Amino acid sequence: MSLITVCCEAPVGVDVEPSSRRDEVASAAEVALHRNEHPSSPDEMLRLWVRKEALLKAHGTGLATDPRSVHLDTSGHILEGPAGAIVDLTLGPDWCAAVAVLGPTPEVVVSY
User: Fold this and answer.
1) Which long-range contacts (CB under 8 A, 24 or more apart) does 34-40 make?
2) Which of 28, 58, 66, 76 makes a 20 to 30 Å CA pair with 36?
3) pTM for this one?
4) Where is the 4'-phosphopantetheinyl transferase domain (predicted)?
């Protein structure tokens, strides 16, 4: 699956992963998790991964920025890292996806 994002007012990034990668992503926790992040399942880890990757893509660096430097709470709010907003996308049970918009974004509306 491919996703394209467009935002005229701020940098934007998106990430989508097949749900079948949940165990593979969970095994990469040591290189992806902030010291205060503790996902309770492979599904939570996959959700955290797509949120971080979307945010870092919006930031313009992708995985050149260490994902461990980004701290998200369980609902995707950024506690540490580049400012922005992250919205989970619902694409069905086979996919996990998120979109991130940088900058001071009091309200983000995502249409898909």
Assistant:
1) 34/68, 34/69, 34/70, 34/71, 34/72, 34/80, 35/68, 36/71, 36/79, 37/71, 37/72
2) 58
3) 0.89
4) 11-74
Mean per-residue pLDDT, 18-47: 93
| Res. 20: pLDDT tops 90 | yes
CATH number of 12-102: 3.90.470.20
Residue ranges of domains in the chain: 12-102
CA 4 to CA 70: how far, in whole Å? Answer: 23
Instruction: Provide the pLDDT for residue 7.
Output: 77
Cα distances (Å, whole numbers) of residue 104 to 11, 48, 74, 92: 11, 21, 20, 30
Q: Give the C-alpha separation, 46 to 8, whole Å.
A: 28
* Token output for 83: 């400012």
Q: What is the full DSSP assignment across 46-66?
A: HHHHHHHHHHHHHHT-GGGS-
**What is the Cα–Cα distance from 16 to 41, expressed in whole angstroms?**
18
